[in-house]
Amino acid sequence: MNSDSEAIDLADPLPGKRVFRVDSWTWVDITADPTQASDIPDLDTDAYMGLDQLALRDAFTDRDLPKLDDFGDHLLIVLHGLRDDDVETYEVDCFVTEDQLLTVHPIRSPGIDAVWAELEQSPNLAPPSTSELAAALADVLTRRLLAVVDAFDLRAEELIYRALDADPELLTDITEIRSDIAITRRVVHPQRETLDQLRRSKSPLINDAARRRFSDVFDVAIRTGYGLDTARSALSETLDAYRGAEAKRATEVNRVLTIYAATMLPLSLVAGFFGMNHPNLPGIGSDWGWVLVAGSMLAIAAVSLGVFVALGWIRRPSGRQAADTLGKGLVEAARTPVEVVVALTALPLRTIHRPARRSRQDPPDHGR
């Protein structure tokens, strides 16, 4: 493979290929879009004959979950990283031999770019073996997955405040965050198992230093998995808090409407009684009859409100406050059926137009 590595480096020009060399090993990194034929090299050449051909073809054309394959004289380590522009993962196939590391990925990898830039800046600090370099790549890629948990922790308190305020846009945000967590969680658990296999591997291609580094990365993957599971539970609690706030608001609306209806019912009864078209109604011929009836209606309304105040349903508001409360209650009563429909239809949606999604920057404090 040592002689073939020079052939790979020099005789196989690709638009997304770059090479980094030190005395003891060579790192070949290829960015190959499987939908672009020009990005895929000719795998039948002698340059790639030292690698398992089926695994090599899958690296350029197929998508796999994290895994470890041991072919004796070389290893295939499949890892996943996180994109920069969205919460989406991509595959990184690492072919590890004694003196060469070949990495293949379909898009630009921020994690690989970071390691590459560090090696270019300080080549004297390069790992002494390809297995330690692979462990460094696994470390960067896995820690970027942990960033999803950190981002959620920063928004968790804000989501709770919005849930307690019954923010109608919260359901859309929860749906998107659930999708992000599910995407990350789908690769974290198999990546954790792959790292566990690497730290326990008896392959001569992995030295003790690399095993210790893989053990550290395995701990990061465990924290990431636990963090994602905790985030899912926190989202469920946030959703319960939102539903409780919605129910409380609906209860307040019903209370306002009940007080309004209970106060108006006896007044409507009095108005209906004296509005009957009979000439012999009591006080119908008196000039002061309407005053007595109006006074009686005011007294009934005052007694009704006093009863509700004594029951603790309402406080003693001013006239303007009472009007504002009633108006708000009527508006909320009109809005409630629409918001219930939104709650029932928005929550199960999983298909979100990803490029047009809202920014992950924190909105203004609603509470927060």
Strand arrangement, major sheet:
1-2-6-5-4-3
Level of helix content? 55-70%
User: How many structurally independent domains?
Assistant: 2
Q: Give the overall shape.
A: rod-shaped
Radius of gyration, CA atoms, in whole angstroms = 34 Å
Assigned CATH class of the largest domain:
Alpha Beta
Which CATH architecture of the largest domain would you pick?
A: 2-Layer Sandwich
Detailed description of the structure:
The chain has 368 residues and is of the alpha+beta class. It folds into two domains: 2-241, CorA soluble domain-like (Beta Polymerase, domain 2); 245-356, no CATH class. It has helices at 2-11, 53-61, 110-121, 130-164, 170-200, 208-274, 289-311, 319-346, and strands spanning 17-21, 26-31, 67-70, 75-82, 89-96, 100-105. The model is unreliable at 1-11 and 332-368 (pLDDT under 50). A hairpin with a 4-residue loop joins strand 3 (67-70) and strand 4 (75-82).
